[in-house]
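Pasting as-is:
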Amino acid sequence: MHLLKGTARLTLLLALLPAGGCGLTSIGDSGSNQTPGEVISRFLEAIRAGDDEQASGLLTPLARQKTAEMQMVVAPPGSETARFQVLDTQMLSGAAHVTSDWTDLDSDGKPHTDRIVWILHHDPQGWRIAGMSARVFADQEPIVLNFEDPADMLRKQQLAEEEIARRDGRTPAAAASGAPAIR
């Protein structure tokens, strides 16, 4: 059985989780006065705790709409062993990039840290998450996932799974029959 490790696992899980419910999610506390780093802290705590509704509520309205249309949740399964640290924020015109480290146990029970750059847009609700960038393979450029374009996320997931299978010496069909990347 093949288990994805490290960033490949987290990135792929963030891309493709089937939603348990339907429709758009809104959050009670809009957080309109929160900094981009505070929004990412709330998002990461929500995914660590398995609170898909809270995590979805921190996405841009377009990301919520598009992922709901495809019945996707942009969050991995909750993990009591995970921890995170929000690092630096780079402010851009109407946008921000927030770097974080996510540490959890890999398939061998050893801690593994993934570095992710979150892409946020500022809208009337405040800072909201539009996507992420992470290095899945050390010898390749980071993969950028645009949460506002789930079809592109699916395509990138498929390409990454094929590359993982190629590197493991398996066919893509054999990779698909291993441990699922979705819950």
